[in-house]
Amino acid sequence: MRFTQIATLVVTAIFMLSACSGSEKNMQQSSTTKNELPKKVWTTKLLPASDVVKRHLTGTLQAADAVSISFEVTGVISAMYVDLGQSFNKGDVLAELDKAVYMLAVQQNKSVLGEASAALVDARQTFERNKTLRRQGLVSQAAFDNALANFDIAKQRTEVAESSLAIATENLSDTILVAPYSGRVSARFAEPSQQVSPGTAVISIQGNANLEVNAAIPEGWISKVSLFDQVSVLVPSLSASTTYPATLTEIGAQASIANAFPITITLNDNHTGFYPGMSAEIILSVSSLFATDEYYEVPFSAFTTNKSGPYLYFVAIESPKLTDKDTPIYTKSANHNLRNNKDTPVYAKGVNNELNAIAKKYYIEIVELKAETAIIKFKQQPDIALLTELRIVKTGLDFLRPEQAISVVETSTQIYNQ
């Protein structure tokens, strides 16, 4: 009996100690929750997606008229009349081959033509005589037919000789390399006394027309541009800020490498210091598909995802809690109170004071991904009335929970690359 009483007392004591321990633990947890410091976060302003955005493409300056020219006949170069970078006019002689062989060929073919012409005259006379005699019945039909055949052969030989002379004359003229248009020499590939073959490039030339920019546009933008759109061109090697007006003059019909379509941009004017081969940057004004109020553009760091989908945190700023470190300022009402001997200055939050806020979680839908940002829209439109400013948490979303107290340590608008 006594043992039972002792056991009962021991159990009761253990129960009371456990209850006290649990109560103390709950009080500690409650105190910890109540005194939890706000999580410090960096924020950025939520920006609407623009109806017109600037797209940048890299390209290379090239001459609108550029070609490598060559002789059409073989031979030895006797003279080069232009140097690298030298200007010339249309019709100027740029280079010349040794003409000796081709002049002899012309003389030879002239002689052949003369011989063929004389034979033609003799054959024509013989044919005319036989035709007259045949009418008189003084020659046989066979003799007449033979005279006619010789006359036809003589005509054919004369025509062949004329063609050969024309070819020889053309070859002689092809020993001179003539400028097809005005421009300047961009490269020289041959020198005097060098043997060249037909089609071998001798000189590379470029015209004086406005320069072009050769580039490629991604397939996602091809439907947002049109021929003759006005664009801007930047040449970084000359100036990092000066842009030059240009026109989109060509759009390729078939994608090339990386599903990009070739395009050609023509500068509206000639500019000093521009040379083919220089790097250029094209600035396109591309129409956006997200011109309504429901689309926004946010940096990648401003949203994350869980099983329910991507989401971000809005900053709901509460009324500031003033401290004795806040700076007093005096408004009209405050000054009026001072005049009435009432010491009631109006306090405002100091510049370095932190704003009290909570994190509001909203799920989003990602519409388009860009290089550093994303176009998004909200699955449920935020209650703008509850938000003092359209600011979102920029970093550290994985360490936040909904309605958690946060401390905004960045209140200036952050501009990120759009």
TrEMBL record:
Gene Ontology CC annotations of this record: efflux pump complex
Question: What are the alphabetically sorted keywords of the record?
Answer: Signal
Matching entries from InterPro entries are given as: RND_pump_MFP
Give the signal peptide, or none: 1-22
Q: Name one GO molecular function term.
A: efflux transmembrane transporter activity
Protein family per UniProt: Belongs to the membrane fusion protein (MFP) (TC 8.A.1) family.
Q: In its UniProt entry, what is this protein called?
A: Uncharacterized protein
Q: Which organism is it from?
A: Brumicola pallidula DSM 14239 = ACAM 615
